Amino acid sequence: SxxxxxxxxxxxxxxxxxxxxxxxxxTSINNLQWYRQNSGRxxxxxxxxxxxxxxxxxxxxxxxxxxxxxxxxxxITASRAADTxxxxxxxxxxxxTLTFGKGTMLLVSP
Amino acid sequence: xxxxxxxxxxxxxxxxxxKSLKCEQHMGHRAMYWYKQKAKKPPELMFVYSYEKLSIxxxxxxxxxxxxxxxxxxxxxxxxxxxxxxxxxxxASSLLAGPYNxxxxxxxxxxxxx
Lengths: 110, 114
Known about the structure:
The complex is a heterodimer of chains A (110) and B (114). By secondary structure, chain A is an all-beta fold.
């Protein structure tokens, strides 16, 4: 069953701007992860935030998690054309199964 | 070696064919996964193997038959597929099955069923 719902579905920005994507989910989780997928190929793990964490940074990425609102956001700062991809949030609850959201397609124009 | 490889990259098959997808990793991971991804949709979990044993089958039709012959290799045998089974099939692995284990994905096999 689908757990995460991202918005917006698509986002178009210029290089150098920041991109913010949001994810909402329905049930309690162990952690929430963000993945990037280029052109329908394999997914690349970006960052994992545990349910007891509120914010995490990795390079140009900043992730927040609000378990009371069952939501997370991914901020990409100073975006580059190479950041063009689909971004998925995935929640992990229980054994280790990931349930992916619908994804946000990000287009960064030079 | 920190990657998951999948072969073939593309596969076209008829509904009466039998084919197999192959996935390999040499990272010493003991958990391996198959996902199915339709166009413009998120990946959906199909199977989870832990220590070469099937631990999760997400109610996948029997025309998909997974096999894990050793800790580095994962196969997906396909038989009598339907056109709606056309999708990107992704393999992933993680050090262990269980929470907080990062999954590493292969590039996928794009399957077309005619």
